[in-house]
Design goal:
The chain contains 10 helices and no strands. The chain is mainly alpha-helical. It has 2 domains: about 50 residues, Arc Repressor Mutant, subunit A, CATH 1.10.10; about 120 residues, no CATH class. Helix 7 crosses helix 9 and helix 9 packs antiparallel against helix 10. It comes from Bombilactobacillus mellifer. This is HTH tetR-type domain-containing protein.
Length: about 190
């Protein structure tokens, strides 16, 4: 292969593979056969093999989401659901491959990270910070609820109408709005 191989190239090839057909498993050997790169090249950029590739791909998607700086929960949820709906096969494949590989805490941490990033750009960020300082487990509670609805959609192979998923995820945030209103009244 004459093209210069980089980590970004390998990530792009992974995206392409996930877009082609349903995948139940994907080893480094499978990946190298389909991408015509050597195992040593994969391990040079991703020492943990496929797990590192999956994690890096997810972190790229997460970073992309955080860069949008969407300060409205409904738009943030719609953006995420729309991405999955537009990339159904890739999303399902990624879910099948990575969901089992990463511990539940990884997913909770990622959802919490997205929430924290969102809380930093909304107008009520100081109020949210006070609420979370007083009740540090609120973030776990909210992230767990959001993750539950997200998992249910994927476990159902994305059959549920995306608008229903959006509504469920938006309702998860209504708890925070309730807390914000309650905190404002108490101040």
């Amino acid at each position: 292969m004459t093209a210069r191989i980089t980590s970004e190239y390998l990530l792009q090839r992974l995206r392409e593979l996930l877009d082609q057909k349903p995948v139940r498993s994907l080893s480094v050997s499978d990946f190298t056969q389909q991408t015509v790169v050597s195992r040593s090249t994969v391990y040079r950029y991703f020492p943990g093999g496929m797990l590192d590739l999956y994690q890096t791909l997810f972190l790229h998607l997460s970073l992309n989401l955080k860069q949008h700086e969407i300060d409205n929960w409904s738009r943030l949820v719609q953006h995420c659901v729309h991405y999955v709906d537009c990339h159904r096969l890739r999303s399902l494949n990624f879910y099948q491959l990575a969901h089992c590989e990463f511990p539940r805490q990884f997913w909770l941490n990622e959802v919490e990270s997205i929430l924290i990033n969102f809380f930093q750009i909304i107008p009520q960020k100081a109020l949210v910070s006070r609420i979370l300082e007083k009740n540090p487990y609120e973030l776990d509670f909210i992230a767990g609820g959001l993750l539950y609805h997200w998992d249910a959609w994927f476990e159902n192979n994305l059959v549920t109408d995306p608008q229903i998923v959006i509504q469920k995820l938006i309702h998860g945030y209504q708890y925070i709005n309730y807390q914000l209103q309650n905190e404002t009244i108490q101040l």
